[in-house]
Specification:
- Helix content is 32%, strand content 25%.
- The two termini are 25 Å apart.
- The chain is α/β, with parallel strands linked by helices.
- Strand 16 and strand 17 form a beta hairpin.
- It has a domain of 181 residues: D-Amino Acid Oxidase, subunit A, domain 2 (D-Amino Acid Oxidase, Chain A, domain 2), CATH 3.30.9.10.
- The strands form four sheets. Strands 4, 5, 6, 7, 14, 15, 16, 17 and 18 form a nine-stranded mixed sheet that branches. It has a six-stranded mixed sheet with strand order 9-2-1-13-20-19, with helices on one face.
- The structure holds flavin-adenine dinucleotide.
- Flavin-adenine dinucleotide binds next to helix 1, strand 2, strand 14, strand 18 and helix 11.
């Protein structure tokens, strides 16, 4: 079967790879000159099924107000006359009940755990390298109240069968020795030994090479403009600035830019760009750097070891598609890494980056079929696109081939929004 994949972020590239492995003729259209140059470029590097949870949860509306008043705020809202933003925000608020949280988390964990298994299998099959580490992740608590508050999370982890360790100061230092120098800054942590880390950009670039070897054609520098469609037939072509492209099946994996493309087909996709930032610091003293990911719970900033660099990522900012680099967000990231890993490397030499998380209001991605017969979606991965990429690729390949995926698709498709 001929399949066109729209978008070559970590999601589109993973889908392309698994489809080619399954024997399909795959072409990928991408506006950038190479894969993973937008949101998949500079993320925090966590492959973290253990932290797969929606941002919308009980107590979040109150916490959100507190966060916005902090000096180094994890949440920034720039009020705009953007109906899509307000609709998305209201829908997110409706997901802040305990019942919705549990439902959404269950769906996310299902895909994320599967994805981690697919990633392991992919590594074993191909030997793919991406500054990967398998040393778990550590959520670090600066206050006793935060540590005590883990009881609820621990219940959920237990119920989902996710291994975890609640650690005191010394326990944290055992896994992250560099924290030994700043023991007075925190009281303890929650470690998820099953989590992994790695550079999403390097992974996607390497996977694209493997996909090419399987016959995938990447067409870079192609701007997708619209989907041409006919009632009864579905999508008939993809219109771009370089002419039209046709196939038997079309997969939309354009991250935050997906909704605008499918709206004319009557698909209302509530994916909104949630802006995040990262800095990448060269390591000058490895003994002062993290071993894996340390997630600072107070600032919601993740500090991750990626080879000879430290990646520091965080902030959720609602400001539409604006990609400006805001110096205040850099200050927050620098503050956290110098506070916890003062000897790791010089923050003045760090590169600064921003990306748009393609977020759904319930945190769960939108993958699979639509009511347009030959059109599939693979977007809305929000905070966890790197974590969920391999599993998404595998599921999509099964669906295109007409096979039942290995995981239950309940709640993962656009049908949950009536699309
Ligand atoms: C600060 C930050 C930290 C994060 N940390 C983590 C983490 O630790 N772990 C994790 O799992 N996830 C993390 N994420 C989330 C993760 O990075 C995203 O979920 C993931 O990159 C989304 O991938 P994607 O392929 O859907 O989107 P993208 O990477 O944005 O890919 C979409 C592609 O479509 C292309 N495109 C769009 N429009 C067009 C068009 N009209 N024509 C042609 N091409 C087009 C774009 O160029 C792009 O390459 C983080 C995100 C941010 C911002």
């Amino acid at each position: 079967m001929q399949v066109l994949i729209l978008g070559s972020g970590v999601i589109g590239t993973s889908v392309a790879y698994y489809l080619a492995r399954a024997g399909h003729a795959v072409t990928v259209l991408e506006r950038q000159p190479a894969p993973a140059l937008e949101t998949s470029f500079g993320n925090a590097g966590e492959v973290s099924p253990g932290y797969s949870a929606p941002w919308a949860g009980p107590g979040v509306p109150v916490k959100a107000i507190k966060w916005m008043l902090m000096q180094h705020s994890p949440l920034v809202i720039k009020p705009m006359l953007d109906p899509a933003m307000w609709r998305w925000g209201l829908s997110m608020l409706r997901n802040c009940t305990q019942a919705r949280y549990e439902l959404n988390k269950g769906r996310m964990v299902r895909l994320a755990e599967y994805s981690r298994d697919c990633l392991k299998a992919l590594r074993a099959d191909t030997g793919i390298r991406y500054d990967e580490r398998m040393q778990g992740t550590l959520q670090l608590f600066r206050t006793q109240a935060q540590l005590d508050g883990t009881a609820k999370d621990v219940e959920v982890l237990k119920a989902s069968g996710v291994p975890y360790q609640v650690l005191d100061r010394d326990g944290c230092v055992l896994h992250e020795p560099a924290l030994g120098a700043v023991k007075d800054k925190f009281v303890g942590g929650l470690r998820l030994p099953g989590d992994e880390t790695g550079d999403c950009f390097k992974f996607t670039q390497a996977l694209a090479k493997l996909a090419e070897a399987e016959g995938v054609q990447f067409r870079f520098g192609v701007n997708i403009q619209a989907l041409e469609h006919e009632a009864g037939k579905g999508v008939t072509a993809v219109r771009t600035d370089q002419g039209s492209f046709t196939a038997d099946r079309y997969v939309v994996a354009l991250g935050s830019y997906s909704p605008a493309l499918v709206r004319p087909l009557g698909i209302d996709l509530p994916v909104y760009p949630v802006k995040g930032f990262s800095i990448t610091v060269p390591i000058t003293d490895a003994s002062g750097a993290p071993e894996s990911t340390v997630m600072d719970e107070t600032f919601k900033v993740a500090v991750t070891r990626l080879g000879d660099r430290i990646r520091v990522g965080g902030t959720a900012q609602l400001s539409g598609f604006d990609l400006a680099l805001d110096a205040r967000r850099r200050d927050t990231l620098e503050h956290v890494v110098t506070d916890l890993f003062p000897r790791g490397g010089p923050v003045r030499d760090a590169s600064f980056w921003t990306g748009l998380r393609p977020m759904t209001p319930d945190g769960t991605p939108v993958i699979g079929a639509t009511r347009v017969p030959n059109l599939l979606l693979s977007t809305g991965h929000g905070t966890l696109g790197w974590t969920m990429a391999a599993g998404t690729g595998r599921v999509m390949a099964d669906l295109v081939a007409g096979r039942a995926p290995e995981i239950d698709m309940e709640g993962l498709t656009v049908a949950r929004y009536g699309g």
